[in-house]
UniProtKB/TrEMBL annotation, chain A:
GO molecular function ontology, one term from the record: ATP hydrolysis activity
NCBIfam families: urea_trans_UrtD (TIGR03411)
One Gene Ontology cellular component annotation held by this UniProt entry: plasma membrane
UniProt keyword annotations, A-Z: ATP-binding, Nucleotide-binding, Transport
Keyword Ligase included in the entry's annotation: no
Full protein name: Urea transport system ATP-binding protein
Lineage: Bacteria, Pseudomonadati, Pseudomonadota, Gammaproteobacteria, Nevskiales
Entries under PANTHER family matching the protein: CONSERVED COMPONENT OF ABC TRANSPORTER FOR NATURAL AMINO ACIDS-RELATED, HIGH-AFFINITY BRANCHED-CHAIN AMINO ACID TRANSPORT ATP-BINDING PROTEIN
Sequence ranges assigned to domain ABC transporter in this UniProt record: 40-280
SUPFAM superfamilies on file: P-loop containing nucleoside triphosphate hydrolases (SSF52540)
Highest taxon in the source lineage: Bacteria
Organism in which the protein naturally occurs: Panacagrimonas perspica
Automatic annotation (TrEMBL), chain B:
Pfam families attached to this UniProt entry: BPD_transp_2
Protein name (Swiss-Prot/TrEMBL): Amino acid/amide ABC transporter membrane protein 2 (HAAT family)
The keyword Cell membrane is annotated on this UniProt entry: yes
Subcellular location per the Swiss-Prot or TrEMBL entry: Cell inner membrane
């Protein structure tokens, strides 16, 4: 009988200690301000690796609730751009703002995740030794401080939320399966599910349909389209049919800067784009 | 209407498990280990104290001390497994924390000697009188108080681990580089503690202990009390580690082991997780060292030797990395082998240890405790195939 009371006590103690020890945790993170309807500002971003300019004075704006596709030949700087936004790579020049108030260049990767930017990697990265369920549990939004996690208990509401996401990503029957044992496509889906659990304002999705069957690709397209509005979604993809099926606005990157931007039709008819990208076979 | 009815029922289905369920679910080996530990902790004192000498069942004081030592090693192995097996931090300097805990205990025991030393100085230990020191250095102050010394036993290793970890993890030092600097850490401490000017007895270390809490260390009752305390500490240490690895914190730590950058992008401050786990592990190692010293009766800088830390890693690898009970099994088995072999063929031991490590790495990647589950899986597949063929 006294055990739950004791646990509660330990938990309260842990939370108090946690507050003292983790000052500046989630509470200090600035809030996202979307008063100008723009969620992401990239201005004049330049990144060089050993003299090679991966990004060259790149400027890009993403509206709140938008679904944006980014295409471009290999080496155009798509992944580097994602690295800059998520804090993995620091640019030599330029500025990156999330809404009106958050300067992304001053934050670390976990802080950027905390203010509301989620990322799906090109190669599906899930926690292979954990079960599907645990992967989603770990990705769950909320305070991620050490002490909180030490005494964290799953609430029934959180459990339901995970069940919902399992349903959405079609892995309901695999909840107890080791994530490492899933097929490639299922891993991609699990990673998208983890993004959903994180519930970020901006989703960066790097090649979501690589290695998926046509049916899986179709379902991914539906999912991404349904996410836009509530979230802003930036998709980097090579599969032109896929881009055509979901894109409202397409940005074409070439040699580290924006070559063209507009609807799929406009972009496809742009002579510059035809020359550098669609012209040489269309990938 | 139906949905409104459905929600509470769904919620009820996900009622959180009771603490007991949380602790013991799906973990027969841990239950087995804790049971065996409890039996040993009760049985050894009886066999030593109650069963008369000369009876075949009588346990000699040598055996009691030996088993007590194995239990200290087991606690150290659990501490190493916690960071290596669960977080992928290969510390090759963990005996530094073990030795620091041991030194803290040794300092207390030295001050218990009092006037019974060779020079009969009421305050200064013999080696300080010998060095012509006139008063106790500041860091020896308070070590005559048992409670203070016991705090230092975990505080000093914890502090060193915290500072070291803060520097290393914040700079994102990982993998083999981290292993090398942990070796450097323990080697640096080895050299420092060898120096007489450090104030820890130089190469002789601290020894000639007389009393613990005013009771003679040579008395069987005290020996047994130490033994029981070791058993209890191992049990609680194991339990604490088990709680840690089974909490969500533990799942985050394992996630960091498997995909560090993914964990970062989800929003986990990876360096904080590593730092606290490393510090906790160092404190456990310090506790193990403190229990070890009064049982073996000496602590000297040799305990800092880099080879010792590597040996601990081998225990864990042999037993089964990533399972806490595996670490215990490895520590006990390898040390038992060491006791037998160094007695029978002293020159062979290091070669045997090296060979053991190679064999385990090549043929038993999950260690000894991984053999049974693997065998069972193989038998199951064979059975399945046979059943299919029969059909």
């Amino acid at each position: 009988m006294s055990a739950p009371g004791l646990r509660g006590g330990i938990e309260r103690f842990g939370n108090t200690v946690g507050r003292v020890l983790n000052r500046g945790g989630s509470a200090a993170a600035p809030r996202l301000d979307l008063s100008h309807d723009i969620i992401l500002y990239l201005e004049g971003i330049t990144v060089s690796f050993d003299g090679f300019r991966a990004l060259n004075n790149l400027s890009l704006y993403v509206e709140a609730g938008e679904l944006r596709c980014i295409i471009g030949p290999n080496g155009a700087g798509k992944t580097t751009m994602m690295d800059v936004i998520t804090g993995k790579t620091r640019p030599d020049l330029g500025s990156a703002w999330f809404g009106q108030t958050v300067d992304l260049l001053t934050l670390t990767e976990p802080e950027i995740a905390e203010v509301g930017i989620g990322r799906k990697f090109q190669k599906p990265t899930v926690f292979s030794e954990h079960s599907v369920f645990e992967n989603l549990e770990l990705a769950m939004a909320g305070n991620k401080s050490v002490w909180r996690m030490l005494f964290a208990k799953m609430t029934p509401e959180q459990h339901l939320r995970i069940d919902e996401v399992l349903e959405t990503i079609g892995l309901k029957d695999h909840r107890a399966a080791r994530a490492g044992s899933l097929s490639h496509g299922q891993k991609q889906w699990l990673e998208i599910g983890m993004l959903l659990m994180q519930d970020p304002a901006l989703l960066l999705v790097d090649e979501p349909v690589a290695g998926m069957t046509p049916q899986e690709t179709e379902r991914t397209a539906e999912l991404l389209v349904s996410l836009a509005g509530k979230h802003s979604v930036v998709v980097v993809e090579h599969d032109m049919n896929f881009v055509r099926s979901i894109a409202r606005t397409v940005t074409v990157l070439h040699q580290g800067s924006v070559l063209a931007e507009g609807s799929m039709e406009q972009v496809q008819n742009d002579p510059k784009v035809i020359e550098v990208y669609l012209g040489d076979g269309g990938h | 209407m139906e949905n409104a009815m459905e929600a509470p029922r769904k919620l009820a289905k996900h009622a959180p498990p009771t603490p007991y369920q949380l602790l013991m679910r799906n973990d027969l080996p841990s239950g087995l280990f804790l049971t065996v530990l409890a039996i040993v902790t009760v049985l050894v004192p009886i066999l030593h104290l109650v069963v008369p000498e000369g009876n075949v069942l009588h346990l000699s004081s040598y055996s009691v001390t030996l088993i007590g030592k194995y239990m200290c090693y087991a606690l150290l192995a659990v501490a190493v497994d916690l960071i290596w097996g669960y977080c992928g931090i290969l510390s090759l300097g963990h005996t530094a924390f073990f030795a620091l805990g041991g030194y803290a205990m040794g300092m207390y025991l030295m001050r218990q000697i009092g006037t019974r030393g060779v020079y009969a100085d009421p305050v200064l230990p013999d080696f300080m009188v010998f060095l012509n020191w006139k008063e106790l250095p500041w860091f020896w102050q308070g070590m005559d108080q048992f409670w203070f010394a016991m705090i230092m036993v975990v505080f000093i290793p914890g502090l060193l681990a915290y500072v070291f970890g803060w520097l290393a993890f914040r700079s994102r030092v990982t993998g083999v580089y981290l292993s090398i600097i942990t070796q450097a850490l323990t080697y640096a401490l080895l050299l420092a503690f060898f120096r007489n000017e450090m104030g820890f007895g130089g190469n002789n270390g601290l020894t000639d202990f007389k009393d613990l809490l005013g009771m003679d260390l040579k008395q069987p009752g005290v020996r047994i009390a130490l033994f029981v305390a070791t058993g209890v500490c191992l049990g609680f240490g194991y339990f604490a580690c088990r709680y840690v690895v089974r909490s969500r914190f533990g799942r985050v730590v394992q996630a960091i082991r498997d995909a560090e950058s993914r964990a970062r992008f989800i929003g986990y401050r990876v360096e904080n997780y590593k730092l606290w786990l490393f510090t906790f592990s160092a404190m456990l190692a310090g506790l193990a060292g403190a229990l070890y010293v009064p049982q073996v009766g000496i602590i000297n800088p040799g305990e800092f030797a880099p080879i010792n830390s590597i040996e601990v890693v081998i225990w864990v690898a042999v037993g089964g990395r990533g399972t806490l009970y595996g670490a215990v099994v490895g520590a006990v088995l390898v040390n038992y082998a060491k006791t037998v072999l160094t007695d029978a063929l002293p020159d062979v031991w290091l070669y045997a240890l090296g060979a053991l490590f190679v064999v385990v790495t090549l043929f038993l990647p999950k260690g000894i405790v991984g053999v049974l589950p693997d065998l069972k899986a193989k038998i199951d597949t064979l059975r399945l195939q046979r059943a299919r063929r029969a059909r």
